[in-house]
Structure formats: structure tokens, C-alpha cells
Amino acid sequence: MTVRSLPAVGVLLVAVALAAGCGSADPGRPNAAPSDSPVSAPAATGLPSVPMPSAISPTAPSSTASPSAPAPPSAEAQGPTRRRPASPPPVVLPQRPAGAPGAKQVVDAFKAAGLKVPHPKDRSVDCGPDGLGLGCSELIATDAVTVYVFPDEISAGDIAETWGGQSYRRGAVVLNYLEAKTPAAERARYEKVLNALR
Questions:
Q1: Other CB atoms closer than 10 Å to residue 120's CB: what's the count?
Q2: What gap in Å lies between CA 126 and CA 138, rounded to an integer?
Q3: Which of 83, 122, 125, 167 is most buried (CB neighbours < 10 A)?
Q4: How confident is the model at residue 178, as a pLDDT?
Q5: What span, in angstroms and rounded, lies between the C-alpha atoms of 134 and 32?
Q6: What is the rounded CA–CA span in Å between residue 150 and residue 159?
Q7: What is the distance between the alpha carbons of residues 109 and 159, in angstroms, rounded to a whole number?
Q8: Contacts of 105 by beta carbon, 8 Å cutoff, 6+ apart
Q9: Chain segment 55-90, per-residue pLDDT in tens
Q10: How far apart are CA 6 and CA 166, in angstroms?
Q11: Distance, CA of 112 to CA of 42 (rounded, Å)
């Protein structure tokens, strides 16, 4: 054996020892017995002896295995779980201006004056972004007239202009006749009652 072939022989012996320790999957091939003795170089070469690694136990953990993944943080470390509300928060409408009558007050004044206001419905929620998005503060619809109260007179004036001849405005209150069954001749009576309110 030459000095050049010594490393190849050492690698071959390591491979045989490892294969013998893990067992053989081929039934026709006998298992090689592991050797714990070091492989010695021939005395003539003067090379130091190389220790032979012992067979790796199949149950022993491998030092070259990848580090285990970190455990997920505990629930205590994450803090309390926040749940989304079951329903969206209520729409907050702008306040009507001080001194302006409320929509219900206007409808009650119409009733007191003997004017028809059948089937009144508070539809103030329609003022918000989920409804008509008009930005009104209050809205009561009847079959005769719809009463809008806006947070300021500028907003009320803009809407009254948009509805043209189908509306009447006094201050921040707008009467809308677009979907009403009120004849044009009767509208002046509603407007007179509105003007009388303080």
C-alpha cells in the first residue's frame, strides 16, 4: 500500500463502518462489524494514527441536525385576543344648529295645524354614508312631505337648489315634495306653518 492510497482507504473504512452501524437494507448483503480500533498507518510511513469514528446510534440525536424551529409564542405573550364587533358602530350624524326646529317638531306642527302627515317614518339613518349620504342631521318622511334638518344653512341651501321647484327651505330645514302626494296648491300651507315655527 502506498502513501497516496492511504486517504482513500481511510474514507472507505469510514463508509463501511457507517453502513454497518445503520444496518443493511439488502438481505443478501452481510453487515460489516463495526470496529472501534483506530486505523494505524504503516510504521514505515511515520504518519500518525487516525482514529476511526464509532458507529452512529440510530437513536442518538445528530449534532449536525438543523436547529429546531422556535416554539410559537404563548397566548399570554401575545396579549388578549381582540374581536371585531358583531355589527358596525352606529352612524353619528351632525347636530342640528341651535335654534333650528327638529324634524319631529315640524311634523307635529303640521299635525296641529290640521295638515296631513300620514305614515311618518324617522329615516335619519339615511342621512349618513350608508343611506343617501346627504349629511343631514334629521330626516322624517311622510306620504305628504319629507322634512330634512341640516347642520347649517349652507348645506340646506345647496340641497334645496338641487331639488329645484320640488322643495322649500327655511333656515336649516328643507321640505321635500319629490316623493310626496301633496298637490302644489297645498304646499303653501306647509310652508306657512314652517315659517311660523321659532
A1: 19
A2: 9
A3: 167
A4: 85
A5: 90
A6: 9
A7: 23
A8: 197
A9: 454 554 544 555 566 666 665 556 666 776 666 556
A10: 108
A11: 125
User: What count of residues does the chain have?
Assistant: 198
* Residue-by-residue DSSP string for the chain: --STTHHHHHHHHHHHHHHHHH--S-TTSPPPPP--SPBPPPTTTTPPPBPPPPPPPTTSPPTTSPPPPPPPPPHHHH-PPP---SSPPPP-PPPPPTTPPPHHHHHHHHHHTT----S-EE-GGGGSTTTT----SEEEE-SS-EEEE-SSHHHHHHHHHHHGGGEEEETTEEEE-TT----HHHHHHHHHHHHH--
Cell numbers representing residue 3 in the block: 502513501
The whole-model pTM stands at 0.54
Joined grid coordinates for residue 180: 310626496
Return the amino acid letter for 93: L
